[in-house]
Amino acid sequence: MTPKIRIHLADDHQVLIDGLSNLLRTVSNFELVGSSLDGTTVYDDILSDKADVLILDISMPKKDGIETLKEFKEKQSSCKVIILSSYDDLKIIKEVMKLGAKGYLTKNCAGENIIEAVNAVYQGQEYFSDAIREKIFNTFKDNPKLNQHIIIENPILSPREIEIIILIALEYSGKEISEKLFISSHTVETHRKNLMKKLNIKSTIGLVKYALKNNLINP
């Protein structure tokens, strides 16, 4: 039997926790194991209920989501964190990503986005709602080297992989890509290797050729 994904909720509004609980219980491979209304208890609560995924609000009493993430990072928690917040400020998004959050959603997102996010981060992927992804990408969209590229859907690549391959094709370094997308250099390198394997490409030049051939960028 496939193990269920154990989920903990942390938000200072009981109404939101109740609503999320009802949503998550509709998914057969999810198990809601606990909730927290106070930021000071989140880390201990996670240890107690052995959660795999934490859905965390930024605005929490006494100890906010940022401070909670810092504690998780300091104590090297293995629990994967998804931020569910009313804030879409890029500074906050950037900070929580650097602190190890694996996903970011705004509270006006659809329930299906939350379900997708839980499944994605549990499997070791990152997940951003469309609005957040667009906001992140727009931070470097005005760069003269980037204003020629074309964002299209690709049947093979995920949205994150498309972003990575575009930046590789435009000669951004791994460090520059990590800064643009608010992810670690290690994650960038992992994406690079996965892209080469998925596309059966043996070099960075091959990735550039793929981007050109599939209209991800214009020459």
From TrEMBL:
A Pfam family: Response_reg
Keyword Secreted appears in the UniProt entry: no
Response regulatory domain span: 6-122
UniProt xrefs under SMART domains: HTH_LUXR (SM00421), REC (SM00448)
Chain positions found as 4-aspartylphosphate: 57
UniProt keyword Phosphoprotein present: yes
Keywords linked to the UniProt accession: DNA-binding, Phosphoprotein
Source organism superkingdom: Bacteria
Residues annotated as domain HTH luxR-type: 150-215
Name of protein: Response regulator
Organism for this UniProt entry: Flavobacterium quisquiliarum
